[in-house]
């Protein structure tokens, strides 16, 4: 009995159904983890592959060992006869004449050649070292590309939370408007019965109520889309209804903090953005590849050493060793090496232009992000001022309608203005937070 109770308590404690709400930080950790966003996991695997490719190229600069074993079975033993002089299959030479020498078997029907050899590049190290440097820079560039994707994913998750709760807040505004208009329909119906207003006035109120319901339905649909998109970015099933999201209140607070120094932000972005680091590494890789193509047109020389064992051939030593140098030079290829070197030179120039363009893009993005944040912040201030006026205008108009000094049209107009002011404040507050999140990524923070 005691064991059963403990098991039930453990199940309740560790049950996922009562897990706490998913915060922004938890979602980011999940998305960047080993079981998170599938696209990011694929990009990281590609970056790891690029790193292993660089190690593979670097290993070519070291000595290599090779083993080969060749077994051959011929149609017959090969022999040489000196009386009379002839050579061929042992069976075709014939019998040994009286007093003569028997045929000499120079190759058995089965032979075996076993070789152990080693090779160390010499002059080729010039080309291989730059190949390795180019691939190493390319691998680091791929890693910076992953960092850039991670930064965008973090931005998307933060903004995904903000978009979802913006839609939820908009739905709440529409619900509040719907509640108020439902009460106004009840009042309008009563006033119509006593002849204070006409049926047209009541119908206008009912139309406004229908519009509020439509706004609520639209906001709910937007929230569902934002939630599914966010879950997919994190790495969850978009249809998972068990995940509870926690409102990103910290992001809303950070949005109201003073903006960073505009003058230093652009330079900080150039120094910290992974996109710039990626472009720089791509340029360095192209420069190393260009130098490698130059050295590829020079002769190659390798140090060689081997042990050779031959069985089944009388004129080949059974065991032998050698040490030597092997040189080769493709001195005529109809310009193949020259054009490859020239192509790498153009590619290095293109990478340099791309690096400069990336820096300019970063400066432009930071400038636009500051402008967007300033506009969003100004919209928040204006929305707060507007909603105070709209609340007071609606309160005064509602009393005037009750007193008979204002019409239903006036009431609906003030109600619409109040709803619009509420939606504008909600939208501008969340857009300010999203603009701050975007600025944070664009400055490399």
Task: Give a concise summary.
By secondary structure, this protein is α+β, with helices and mostly antiparallel strands. The chain has helices at 2-14, 24-31, 38-59, 90-93, 124-193, 199-234, 249-255, 262-272, 274-296, 336-403, 408-442; strands at 64-73, 78-82, 85-89, 104-121, 300-313, 319-328.
Instruction: Please mark out the parts with pLDDT under 50 across 5 or more consecutive residues, or reply none.
Output: 1-18
First and last CA, distance = 56 Å
Provide the residue-averaged pLDDT: 88
The helix/strand class is alpha+beta
How would you sum up the global shape?
elongated
Question: What is the radius of gyration?
Answer: 41 Å
Instruction: Tally the beta strands.
Output: 6
SSE pattern, N- to C-terminal? HHHEEEHEHHHHHEEHH
Beta-strand residue fraction: 5-15%
**Helix segment count?**
11
Any overview of this molecule?
- The chain has 445 residues and is of the alpha+beta class.
- The chain has 11 helices and 6 strands.
- Strands 1, 2, 3, 4, 5 and 6 form a 6-stranded antiparallel β-sheet that branches.
- The relative contact order is 0.12.
- Residues 1-18 have low confidence and may be disordered.
Write the layout of secondary structure elements.
Layout: H1 2-14, H2 24-31, H3 38-59, E1 64-73, E2 78-82, E3 85-89, H4 90-93, E4 104-121, H5 124-193, H6 199-234, H7 249-255, H8 262-272, H9 274-296, E5 300-313, E6 319-328, H10 336-403, H11 408-442
Helix pairs in contact: 2-5, 3-5, 5-6, 5-9, 5-11, 6-11, 7-11, 8-10, 9-10, 10-11
């Amino acid at each position: 009995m005691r064991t059963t109770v403990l098991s039930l308590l453990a199940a309740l404690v560790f049950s996922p159904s009562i897990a706490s709400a998913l915060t922004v930080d938890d979602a980011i950790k999940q998305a960047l983890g080993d079981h998170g966003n599938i696209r990011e996991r694929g990009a990281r695997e590609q970056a790891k592959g690029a790193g292993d490719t660089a190690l593979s190229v670097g290993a070519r600069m070291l000595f290599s060992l090779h083993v080969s074993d060749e077994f051959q079975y011929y149609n017959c033993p090969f022999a040489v006869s000196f009386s009379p002089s002839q050579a061929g299959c042992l069976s075709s030479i014939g019998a040994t004449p009286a007093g003569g020498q028997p045929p000499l078997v120079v190759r058995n029907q089965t032979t075996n050649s076993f070789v152990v050899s080693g090779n160390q590049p010499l002059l080729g190290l010039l080309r291989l070292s730059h190949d390795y440097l180019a691939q190493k820079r390319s691998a680091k560039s791929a890693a910076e590309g992953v960092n850039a994707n991670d930064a965008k994913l973090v931005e998307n998750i933060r903004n995904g939370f903000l978009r979802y709760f913006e839609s939820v807040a908009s739905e709440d505004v529409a619900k509040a408007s719907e509640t108020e208009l439902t009460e106004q329909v009840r009042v309008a119906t009563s006033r119509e019965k006593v002849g204070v207003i006409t049926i047209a006035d009541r119908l206008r109120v009912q139309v406004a109520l229908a519009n509020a319901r439509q706004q609520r339905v639209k906001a709910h649909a937007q929230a569902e889309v934002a939630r599914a998109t966010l879950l997919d970015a994190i790495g969850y099933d978009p249809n998972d209804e068990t995940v509870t999201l926690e409102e990103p209140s910290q992001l809303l607070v950070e949005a109201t903090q003073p903006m960073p120094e505009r003058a230093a932000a652009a330079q900080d972005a150039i120094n910290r953005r992974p996109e710039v680091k990626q472009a720089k590494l791509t340029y360095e890789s192209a420069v190393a590849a260009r130098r490698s193509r130059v050295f590829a047109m020079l002769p190659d020389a390798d140090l060689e050493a081997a042990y050779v064992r031959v069985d089944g051939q009388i004129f080949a030593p059974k065991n032998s060793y050698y040490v030597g140098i092997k040189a080769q030079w493709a001195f005529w290829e109809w310009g193949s090496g020259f054009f490859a070197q020239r192509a790498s030179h153009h590619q290095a120039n293109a990478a340099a232009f791309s690096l400069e363009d990336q820096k300019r893009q970063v400066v432009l993005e930071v400038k636009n992000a500051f402008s967007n944040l300033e506009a969003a912040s100004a919209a928040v201030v204006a929305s707060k001022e507007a909603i105070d006026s709209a609340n007071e205008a609606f309160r005064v108009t509602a009393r005037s309608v009750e007193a008979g000094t204002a019409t239903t049209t006036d009431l609906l107009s003030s109600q619409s203005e109040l709803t619009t002011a509420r939606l504008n404040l909600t939208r501008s507050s969340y857009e300010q937070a999203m603009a701050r999140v975007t600025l944070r990524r664009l400055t490399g923070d």
